[in-house]
Design brief:
This protein is of the alpha/beta class and about 240 residues long. It has a single domain, classed as TIM Barrel (Alpha-Beta Barrel), CATH 3.20.20.380. The chain has 8 helices and 10 strands. The strands form 2 sheets. Strands 7-6-5-4-3-2-1-8 form an 8-stranded parallel beta sheet. The protein has a two-stranded antiparallel sheet with strand order 9-10. The longest helix is centred in the first third of the chain and has 17 residues.
Length: about 240
C-alpha cells in the first residue's frame, strides 16, 4: 500500500526539491536549527506562486517551548490570517500549557481563525505529559492530523508508541510519523505503524560557493535533497 509523503521544507529550494522529487505535500517553515518557525511573507508569496502541490505553513513565532505570551499568540493569529489571504490550504501549529497539557482554549481560538484550512498539530504533542490524553483533546478540538515521533527523540525509538496510537485513534485523526525518517526506514515505519502518511525533512548539507571565509564561521547550511526525496517516495509506492 502506498503512503502519502510530506516533506518538511525549510527554504524555497527545498520546496522545489519536494515538488520535483514527487512529494505529495509540503510543510513549510524556516529556521531548521530551532525546529522550525513561521516563514517570511516573501517566502510565502513566492511559494504560493511557483509551487503546485499542497503547502501547509508552520505557525510558530520562535524556537524553544510551546507556551506563548499574549503578544506571541497575537502574532500567530495574524500569521494564520496572512496565510489564508494568500490561499494556503493548511496550517501547522501546537500549544501546550505549563503543566504539559494541550492548551485547549488557545488551540480552539487558532482553529477558529483557520476556518476551513486543514490543520496539523506538530511535535509539541511529543512534549506533552500524557500522549493519550493529549490525543483525545486534539480529536475533540477537530485537528485533522498530528505529527509525532511517539513521544521519543525519533521515530525509530517511538515506532511502537505510534503503532499503539494509530490502533486506538487512527480512525478519528491522521497520525503521521516524523523525525528521523529516511529512504532506508520509511517503508518499514509505515508498515510497522500501519499509517497512511509519513513526514521527512530529507535534508542534506549544502556547500557554499564562498571562496573566502574566516575561521570559526561556517557558510554551509541544510536543505531538502531531491535525490533523497525521490528515494523515499519510491520506497513508499
Amino acid at each position: 500500500m502506498s503512503a502519502l509523503l510530506e516533506i518538511a521544507a525549510n527554504s524555497f529550494q527545498s520546496c522545489m526539491a519536494a515538488q520535483e522529487g514527487g512529494a505529495d505535500r509540503i510543510e513549510l517553515f524556516e529556521n531548521l536549527a530551532e525546529g522550525g518557525c513561521t516563514p517570511s511573507y516573501g517566502m510565502l508569496a513566492l511559494v504560493k506562486e511557483k509551487i503546485n502541490i499542497p503547502v501547509y505553513v508552520m505557525i510558530r513565532p520562535r524556537g524553544g517551548d510551546f507556551i506563548y505570551s499574549n503578544d506571541e499568540f497575537e502574532i500567530m493569529n495574524r500569521d494564520i490570517v496572512m496565510c489564508k489571504q494568500l490561499g494556503f490550504p493548511g496550517a501547522v501549529f501546537g500549544m501546550l500549557d505549563a503543566q504539559g497539557g494541550i492548551d485547549v482554549a488557545r488551540c480552539k481560538d487558532l482553529l477558529s481563525t483557520c476556518g476551513d484550512m486543514k490543520v496539523t498539530f506538530h511535535r509539541a504533542f511529543d512534549r506533552s505529559k500524557d500522549l493519550h490524553e493529549s490525543m483525545q483533546k486534539l480529536i475533540d478540538l477537530g485537528f485533522d492530523r498530528v505529527l509525532t515521533s511517539g513521544g521519543e527523540p525519533n521515530v525509530e525509538k517511538g515506532k511502537d508508541a505510534i503503532k499503539k496510537l494509530q490502533r486506538e485513534y487512527g480512525t478519528d485523526i491522521v497520525i503521521m510519523p516524523g523525525c528521523g525518517v529516511t529512504s532506508v526506514n520509511a517503508r518499514a515505519i509505515v508498515d510497522h505503524c500501519d499509517v497512511n502518511e509519513i513526514h521527512a525533512t530529507a535534508k542534506a548539507k549544502v556547500s557554499s560557493g564562498m571562496q573566502y571565509s574566516k575561521l570559526y564561521f561556517t557558510d554551509e547550511w541544510y536543505e531538502s535533497n531531491i535525490h533523497e526525496i525521490e528515494a523515499i517516495k519510491r520506497s513508499l509506492l
